[in-house]
Amino acid sequence: MAGKEKGKISDAVIRRLPRYRRCLDGLMKAGVERISSGELSAMIGYTASQIRQDLNNFGGFGQQGYGYNVKSLYERIGEILGLDREYKMVIVGAGNLGSALVNYAKYQKWGFYIVAMFDVLPELIGTSINDTPVYSYTQLDQYLQENKIDIGVICTGKGAAPEVMDKLVAGGVKGIWNFAATDLSAPEGIPLENVHLSDSLNALTYYMLRSNPE
Amino acid sequence: MAGKEKGKISDAVIRRLPRYRRCLDGLMKAGVERISSGELSAMIGYTASQIRQDLNNFGGFGQQGYGYNVKSLYERIGEILGLDREYKMVIVGAGNLGSALVNYAKYQKWGFYIVAMFDVLPELIGTSINDTPVYSYTQLDQYLQENKIDIGVICTGKGAAPEVMDKLVAGGVKGIWNFAATDLSAPEGIPLENVHLSDSLNALTYYMLRSNPE
After folding, report:
1. What is chain A's percent helix, strand, coil content, to nearest 5?
2. Which pLDDT belongs to residue B134?
3. A117, B90, B159, B214: which has the fewest Cβ within 10 Å?
4. Longest dimension (CA), chain A
5. Structure confidence by residue, pLDDT tens digits, A3-16
6. B41 vs chain A: nearest CA distance in angstroms?
């Protein structure tokens, strides 16, 4: 479905695309219709040459001396990232982080529907968070059998995470978004993103040290 | 302080270091003393040549045919990332995400002390979360004047985020960790990390589409 892509795109490029898309979203809202790689560079901080190279991976968006059409580029990046369709998600672990995710209303606007949460705590089971029901973790297997879920989100502690991943995979999810503090590997064919919030904190302290030499 | 570094290290390398460190931590706990770049490659998924190149940025850790000393490499990476010292942090915004951060006990073990939180909601002000007091946002300026804070964490909505950033900078923080859904830029000399949880979700859907072609 993602036509015009030239061979394999590097992971680094993929991870820069959301940033481009946010910037383009802001430009659209400001009524900007065209933008050059130089102007994008000033806004995003990547070099103009890197921007041209990144975007060229997906077929020539820009025309020499004419710049990029903001709306087309925004839509094309969304299409590349799979944001032109809808996903059903479940979150396992209804603690603070799970609650933060389900409370982030934007996900729904972007096509990500969190349809159920699961937890082991009796005081959470049977409640709902931002209109999303919290079920018992013991119901997860059956729920996944009865409902087609695209993405499983793991917001448990690291101890429980491998079992949760196995259940999600057995239940037919197509991708896993893992926030447990452990690097999981899913079986071949099931993409998995390990999110470590502390990684960005460690990059921050690296730059702080260099910025404030003692 | 970070001796032996060869010129400017690329941002991509910096962002891979926490991953190396987590892997080395696991190896230490398993009693492994030495590891080759090939073995690290099998565990982490980067190529052995990339691993050697990455680690070579900080002075030769490994010796040909001998591998890396797990503990030394772990400690050296911690030193490079500034994890051999302590940081005092405040969190502005005591909602679910702020609560998730303050409840993550590991930060303290790693030298990150969250000493106060600030919010505008009367029902939160005066409470404490995981033993961390929640003060009124109106007290932030004074608190920062009276306490030396290293890192300010923004867990507010995007509308409030620029003002919060300005207050944190005026109050003397040395770095900012921003979770508000907007890309902030701090003044020169104040490193700032914009964390967008949805970026990893967008990478996930990219890989899901390619993994499950329709």
Report:
1. 45, 20, 40
2. 98
3. B214
4. 62
5. 455 567 888 889 89
6. 14
Task: Give me the half-sphere count of Cα atoms (radius 13 Å) on the Cβ side of residue A22.
Answer: 19
Residue B139 per-residue DSSP state: G
Contact B212 A189 (CB under 8 A): yes
Return the residue matching tokens 């899901």.
B208
Contact A175, B201 (CB under 8 A): no
- Torsion angle (degrees, nearest 10) of CA A101, A185, A148, A14: 70
Under 8 Å CB-to-CB from B146, ≥6 apart: which residues?
none
- Between CA A80 and CA A94 the distance in angstroms is 31
pLDDT digits (tens, 9 = 90+) for B168-209: 999 999 999 999 988 899 999 999 999 998 899 999 999 999
Query: Taking the mean position of all CA atoms in its chain, how far away is CA B66?
Result: 31
Tens of pLDDT, residue by residue over A166-214, are 999 999 999 999 999 888 999 999 999 999 988 999 999 999 998 865 4
Kindly state whether B96 is in contact with chain A, defined as any CB-CB distance less than 8 angstroms. yes
CA distance B150 to B173: 5
| A window 47-86, beta carbon within 8 A of B | 80-83
Counting every residue written for chain B, the total comes to 214
Amino acid at B102: V
pLDDT in tens, A20-41: 999 999 999 999 999 998 899 8
Give the separation between CA B123 and CA B120, rounded to whole angstroms. Answer: 9
Closest C-alpha to B149, from B84, B80, B98, B92:
B92
Which one of B8, B97, B202, B214 makes the best mutation probe of the A interface by having the most chain A beta carbons within 10 Å? B202
For a pLDDT cut of 90, what percent of chain A falls above it?
A: 65
- CA-nearest residue to B45 within chain A is A185
